[in-house]
Amino acid sequence: MINKPEILSPAGDAECLNSAIDFGADAVYLAGKMFGMRSAPNNFDNEQLKQACALAHKKGVKVYVTCNILPHNKELAFLPDFLTYAQECGVDAFIIADLGIFEAAKKYAPKVARHISTQAGITNYAAANALYNMGASRVVLAREIPLDEIAEMRAKIPQELEIECFVHGAMCVSFSGRCLISSYMTGRDANRGDCAQPCRWKYHLFEENREGQYFPVDETSDGTYLYNSRDLCMIEHIPELVQAGISSFKIEGRAKSAYYTAVTTNAYRHAVDDFVSEGSNFKLKPWIREELEKISHREYNTGFYFNSEPGQVTDNGGYIRHYDAVAVCEKSIDRTTSLISQRNKFFAGDTLDVLPPGGVPFKIKCISLMNEDGIFVESAPHPTQRLTMKSDFAVPAGSVIRKKRD
User: Fold this and answer.
1) What would the pLDDT profile of 296-313 be if each residue is shown by its tens digit?
2) Model confidence over 209-260: pLDDT tens digits?
3) Neighbours of 155 (CB within 10 A)
4) Burial class, 61, CB count within 10 angstroms (exposed 0-12 / middle 13-18 / buried 19+)
5) Measured between alpha carbons, how far is 390 from 388 in angstroms, rounded to an integer?
6) Domains plus CATH for the chain?
7) What distance, in Å, lies between the first and last C-alpha atoms of the chain?
8) Residue 389 in contact with residue 340, Cβ under 8 Å?
9) H-type helices in 135-190, by residue range?
10) pTM to 2 decimals?
11) Which of the chain's termini has less CB crowding within 10 Å, N or C?
């Protein structure tokens, strides 16, 4: 019997939360306004956190709150109230890196499970067992561990202790995200959720006595992106991940869009469900792999899972973008008519690619667009503009609509 892993999706804001739920997440991870490792997303204030838990639980989805910064003394005074309130909201687990927060969660939110963050750098079964004995119910492993070592760890820890691993998204050049480059170069502390991502910048080598003369580190004169890690993508290795004993497949990306959340969640949801139902006959459907080319990403790699470093993209710091998300369907009016909300410009007559919630992508032709004043328009140029779209096929409510770049 296959132990079906959890699909754990990022939710940087309410729109991302809805995407994760609609497209098949078993659980979401998100942050309050304090103690989370991502300050760039909107995150959730107290009332929004309460609403998020209510919505997710109504749909059978768990909510994990990140308390994974490495706090300074002045922040600890705010911790008890936050933990207590999160428990009152019904949060299912905290994701924690700091032992002080770990003990505080036990005291102020004893009903909430405690997961150990990847920031803690767990690389062996002894550390996992020690944390289990302290009260942890899950360990999020360091990203640097190969699959054979994960399988060994699974065999040497209690079955009750769950293993969570990242399977998709951005990688960090530093060990399990414990980076100091941002602090040194910009004063923004990556370990407190404020990374400026200097690992993505272009660098040159200078010699101190030759002012103004630089020496490229790479073969080209354009410089090199020394620290720029490839993105992780394990969609083609679902059987190996399951067989290693991983309990939860985590998708990176709390600072990314609702579109990214929808596409990645849907892809891993289908891949896992197919593997569970097909077993030894499993073969990844081509459209699932193709979906992950429809989001912005750096060159993909399998990280450290197969005993190899992820490698760096040294010739550029940008993303690969083959598609643009152009709209979200708010309502299906009839077989050919939809009410949509625009995200990027597109035109009547365009061929569009539709991803319905929990479904398989398909193409439509946009026959016409009408604005809210009932006037036919040639294009959708205004952000979040609501339009009535005629197409040759029905578009289900909640679908994301995208257009391939020329």
Assistant:
1) 998 899 988 998 765 766
2) 766 665 555 545 555 666 677 899 999 999 999 999 999 999 999 989 999 9
3) 9
4) buried
5) 7
6) 6-171+230-301 (3.20.20.70), 175-215 (no CATH), 323-404 (2.40.30.10)
7) 46
8) yes
9) 147-155, 181-186
10) 0.88
11) C
